[in-house]
Design goal:
Blueprint lengths: L6 E3 L3 E5 L6 E8 L6 E7 L5 E4 L2 E4 L4 E8 L13 E8 L9 H4 L6 E10 L4 H63 L1
Parallel strand pairs: 2-9
Antiparallel strand pairs: 1-3, 3-7, 4-6, 4-8, 5-7, 8-9
Amino acid sequence: MAIQVLQVEPSEIIKFSGPFTEVVSADLKLTNPSEDQVAFKVKTTAPRRYAVRPNSGVLNAGETVTVAVMRQPFEFDPAERVRHKFMIQTVKLEPGMTLENVWTKADPSTFMDTRLKVQFDDHPPSNRIQESAEHCSDSFHEQSSALDHNVCESVEVTNNLVVCVDWLLVAYYPLLFSPCLHMLQSVWF
């Protein structure tokens, strides 16, 4: 196995921060510092639990790509040991090779890989909590006054709608149902 030519960030552990009741994502940053084109593909030991976009591609010299790794929702158990892993497999593109055929044409001894362990953190980062608290405290009064205004408008619209429906029923009820009543009376009596 050859030495990895791509710079992979993070280089050892990919961390997912909860809550895990919804899709959680983490990013991988792949950079090609070499002068060659390099093909990559991202593999995992748990393919049904993760979506990876893009999961393969070609990086030109000096190019960087961000790969989004999305973990499907699940019931988090802190006592359970996480055994999931990712592998970023790469190979230099030789003349005449494309992304479609590089993995079959290239010599397997030229493949390079980086292996990452998965870590789950059920506590969101503290800066996210602090940002949320600041946002809530800054906009609390704006949101509450807007909410009060919207509730009052909704009540007024609902009252107007009820009055209109009542008026329509009173005005058009005889016209709508009188032919039906005559027909029902002739059938039943």
